[in-house]
Amino acid sequence: QVQLVESGGGLVQPGGSLRLSCKASGIALSVRTMGWYRRAPGKQRELVASISDRGTTSYPDSVKGRFTISRDNDKNTVYLQMNSLKAEDTAVYSCSTAVFWGQGTQVTVSS
């Protein structure tokens, strides 16, 4: 049974940082492209970071330079380091292989 479990979300002030984790079981993340997505209230789901099986990363302009995706193959975990957070980063963040999805973790950026 494949499971993706996110953690690390929470409430942070503007300008702060959070690191999200996506722990996988039943599937090897090292051989797959992984993505972090977010969905804010009233908005469509947005891909905010991806990492290929070869380690190539990609980001949209909205988070480029602030977010960093990485993977620890030994821990079968993908991370999303988020710095310089803004109110508009508030959303539920989920990891995905494009087939399997985690349940999501809430990130709220507010003073």
What this model shows, in words?
The structure is a single chain. The chain is mostly beta strands and 111 residues long. The termini are far apart. A hairpin with a 4-residue loop joins strand 7 and strand 8. Helices cover 0% and strands 48% of the residues. The strands form 2 sheets. The chain has a 6-stranded mixed beta sheet, with no helix packed on it. The mean pLDDT is 96. It is built from no helices and 10 strands.
Indicate the radius of gyration in whole angstroms.
Answer: 13 Å
Summed over residues and divided by their number, the pLDDT gives a mean of 96
Could you estimate the helical fraction of the residues in percent?
Answer: under 10%
Number of strands: 10
* Broad shape: globular
Strand order of the largest sheet: 2-10-9-4-5-6
Q: Helix count?
A: 0
Alpha carbon gap, first and last residue? 40 Å
- Main beta-sheet annotation: 6 strands, mixed
Q: Helix- and strand-based class?
A: mainly beta
Q: What's the helix-strand series? A: EEEEEEEEEE
pLDDT < 50 stretches: none
Multimerization state = single chain
Beta-strand level of the residues, as a percent range?
over 45%
Summarize the structure.
The chain has 111 residues and is mostly beta strands. It is 0% helix and 48% strand. It has strands spanning 3-7, 10-12, 18-25, 34-39, 46-51, 57-58, 67-72, 77-82, 91-96, 105-109.
